[in-house]
Amino acid sequence: MLEAALIAQKEIGAALTIHPGRRQDQSQEVMEFIKARGGDPSRTIMDHIDRTVFDEDALLRLAGTGVVLEWDLFSQESCLYPLNPDVDMPNDAGRLRAMRKILDRGHKGQIVIAHDICHRSHMTRWGGWGYAHIHASSSH
Fold this sequence. Notes:
Shape: globular
Oligomer: single chain
CATH class: Alpha Beta
Radius of gyration: 16 Å
């Protein structure tokens, strides 16, 4: 499937968004696969960095591939990650600190932020932060 996506990227300039597995090294493996097949890292977005890559060296190595890194769990402030109990999830402040490290190393233009609103409980109506969380937080 990824090879087909790379063909589309080459033929029409499509951006790829990758939903990596939960192993910390998997994002790097995917980028090595993409680069080996002539894909464009600058047109590739690696999702869920905030639940996948916690080691600073691994994060900087991944940024060094040229991939766009997406911290997309903003507003999810629980340290519990039920799909991997070994993970101590960062809060929004931890996400910002990780992004600052990337920016300080010169990887400007390689960061995307979002909130992965995928459950009813994330919506404001049901007690969550909702879609406006990033915008509302940045205006304070």
